[in-house]
Structure formats: C-alpha cells, structure tokens
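Justification of resources, computational component.

The compute hours requested in this renewal are based largely on the per-chain cost of generating structure records like the one below. Each record pairs the submitted sequence with a full structure-token output. That output is archived, and it is also reused by downstream analysis tasks.
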Amino acid sequence: MNVVSAKQDVEGRLKRGLLGQWYAAAKSVQVKAGRPLSSKIAGERVVMWRGKDGGVRCIEDFCPHRGARLSLGEVVENDISCRYHGVTMDGEGTIVKVPALANCALEGRRPLKSYPTREMADAVFIYVGSADQPVPTDEPKFPSEFTDPEWVTFLAMNRWKANYRDSIENVADPMHGSFLHANSFTLAYGKQQDTLKIERIEDGFCVKRVGQQGVNFDYTDMIMSEEQLYGRLDIPFPPAAGPGGPFRILAFTTPIDEDECYVFIWRLRKVSGFARESYRFLYRTLLESRHWDVLEQDREMIEALPADARRREMLYQHDIGVSRIRQLMSKKAKQQLEAERVPVQTLQAV
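The structure output for this chain reads:
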C-alpha cells in the first residue's frame, strides 16, 4: 500500500469514527421500556431497547429475514420482534423465534452484530468493537465521577452538524474560552494572552495555561485510554453560583457519521449536606440556561467550519493540545487498520 493510500485510509477511519470505543449512545430516559430506539454510531445503524428486566440491549438495526428496521418492531420480554414478519432477535443478535414457520432453520443462528452496553450517569454507553479489540475489557475505565456520590451531576446532550473530531479538538483548546465565551457568566474572567504547555497524565495528557490557573477555562485533561476518549476540565465559579467547589465538565463526543455527532456534557459539582438541594434548585432555575448558551456558542462556531478548514488552517503555539490529540487519534486509527489487514495478508501468504 502506498503512502497516499495509507493516509487516505487513516483519514477515512478518523472521519467515520474510531472503533474499539465505548460511546455514549443515548440518555437513559430516551431508552424507554417497550419502545425501541434507533440510532447511528460511527456509521453503524443500531437499535437499543429496554427489556422487561430493565436492562438495555443493542444490536444492528436490521432484520436478517428481509432487512426491515428492527427499530420499527416491538419489544417482547427481553427480545425485539420485527414488525414485518415477526422474526424475533435477542440482545446477542441471535434469532430466537420465527413465528410464521414451525421449526424454522433460521432459529438459533446469530447473524447480527451485538454491542455491549453499560448504563451509568444517566446515559447508555455502547461498545463498538475493532479488529484489534473486538470486545471490551472486563472493567472499562469510566470516569470515577460517574460513581462518586459526592458529585451533583447534570447531563446535557445535543446533536451537532459537524464531524466529531472538531468537537473533541474544541475541548483540547483552553484558549478559546477567553474569546468565544468572554461574555458568559462563568468564563468572563482572566487574560486573553498566554502560552500553553502539555503535561503527561494517566491515560492521556493535560494541556494548560502557563500564566493563569484557577481563574477561567485554564486546563483540559484529555483522557484517551484503550476504550474511551473524553475531556475533563474545571471552571471556578463566582460566589453568585452558590455553594460548592469548581464546576467540572466531562465532555464526550460520539460520531454519527462523517458529518454529524452527538455531544454529551456532564456538568458536575461537589456539594455536600443541605447545600446539595439548594445548588440543584439554583442550577435548574438559573445556571442551566446559561450553560446551554455557552454550549450553543461552541456548536455555532464548530458547525460553521468549512469543509476544507483542516487543509487551510495555520496552527500556532496555542494549538499544542489540538496537535497532540490528532497525533494520538491517528496512531490509534493506524493500529486498527493494520489489525484489519492481518487476515488478508496471512491468507495471501498461504
């Protein structure tokens, strides 16, 4: 394979979405009992449903009989039944029943891809496997904030008409806060001139401002473990924001296809005792709308990026976080493509 072709393959994988990842696929409240939910993750059409036992299943949104959308079907106990001819699938992608024909030979076959699911922090995550990592590890490293009861958590989800990489790179760029969000409630402080540095952390890196800490959007931890990619940052709150420590954001982005993505933002704050309920009330009645305004500023800017922006851009010192995350994602894409080519090369050698 020549160099140009290899670069095109890597770019194609990055555009569609890295595999071997746990992706946030929906808010928990969207996957209602008895109502299948269709979605598209990294170019793959999936259907999620909540069974009688309360658990969420996810498989390809495709009936192996005639190709109808299973998401148009019905949930039966813990399985899903196609409305076209009643063919019923379980959460592993196995045909468990063909009601129109007794002892049908299709029963027991497993023609569909299934996606492991985890439900936490008010969201449903699904694992999209890769050739080098087809199944997830037994104990994936989800953020500790998801299970720590000290954090008061609110989840925001939105759909952006932009490639998911643009959203990820936005999080890896602390300096944009001082400009794009300069008039916001939480980001109206601090200097607009500084330099950045990168520090290595567990499962990723931290990009931070050199001359300013504890004032504004001063750093981002970019976490890129084997199976997850997300950003973590703290924003100091002014006294008007009520009790508690800094406002923490966990930012996940899920590719839909080359042109759209889901953005999941967990907004967290450590607040204890009676103050927890006071803060929850204050957040819902006052702060939440302001935070949505900030997220909308990001969305508007990212969606307006032209298709040839990457080819024409001129990066400088402030873009060290953007450059590093691009390097890490490209490396992972290359590894996945090499693993996919191994069986072909082996067959050719034989």
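The domain at 144-329 is CATH 3.90.380.10 (Naphthalene 1,2-dioxygenase Alpha Subunit; Chain A, domain 1). The CA atoms of residues 43 and 130 lie 13 Å apart.
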